[in-house]
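User: Here's a chain of 330 residues. Predict its fold as tokens.
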Amino acid sequence: MQLKHKIPGIIPTPEEMERRLQEAKDRRDASWSRLCEKEKELKVIDFHVHTFPEKIAARALEQLSHDSGSRPFTDGTVKELRQSMKEAGVDLSVVLPVVTNPAKVAHINLSAAEQNEHVDETGVLSFAGIHPAAENYRVLLKQAKELGFRGIKLHPDYYGISFDDPRTMRIIDCASELDMIVITHAGTDIGLYPPVCCTVDSIVRVMDTVAPPKLVAAHMGGWNNWDEVLTKLAGRPLWVDTAFSIGEIEWLSPEAEKYGFHQLADEDFIRLVRAMGTDRVLFASDSPWAEQKDYVNRISALPFTEEEKEQIFAGNAKRLLGIDPKQEKS
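Assistant: Prediction complete.
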């Protein structure tokens, strides 16, 4: 059976769709410009947080909390993230979506792009997600760039594909060609079983092979692999973030501590920051798995100079994100 007449408003014409896409782009560009105009007001930028759609947030956090044995500090929604930011004095948070199904990349990124239309009001900026198994990765990355995303997030452990696998490296290479930031989970993930898919050695191989100019290795270069980070990554041209790397882990029960995982002691954290360079370290919490206020307070109390703290808390992130009050569009 075929419809003889089009039903207005259900299936947009190509012209209508193009108009809607342009209007959305205009909103993103205007919002980004307004954010850049407030550059001096951005004192604390959290470069690594996670949120979930309200419909699945409770279920997602319950499963992730069970797998990791650790307690979240928010309910995983943007609403509670913004409340956390207010309490911690965080001015901008970068949401890093983790894509576990290559078929869902486009859908996740379209939803995230809508969120970025109001970044100057919400203080919540999303990166794009990607999956190495997506054969149309070039199309997806080009679309992400056109949607105004500043960068992409990789989590090799969720893919079961190593960071130096050719499928991952081709994505890093393409994203770099598009002048996008590439941030990857690095080291152990306490919610997943070995093997570790982003080792320090794999980061070295990617840097030697692809040489991405805007690479961020999360969790101070490799969670629970910090001795290797110190000897193999220090002095290299990459950034690290402080997500889930300092303080105490909030375990759900004593049994959850059976693997002996722990964060960096203050003196070890300071030594690693010094080795990497304070101009290469990005403040990050990994909310909801760490409390933003606690991370702001902990790092503020460490014996860095005021200039070094400004670099870590916001200056490096502004430089990497391209937050410039003179910038007119994304």
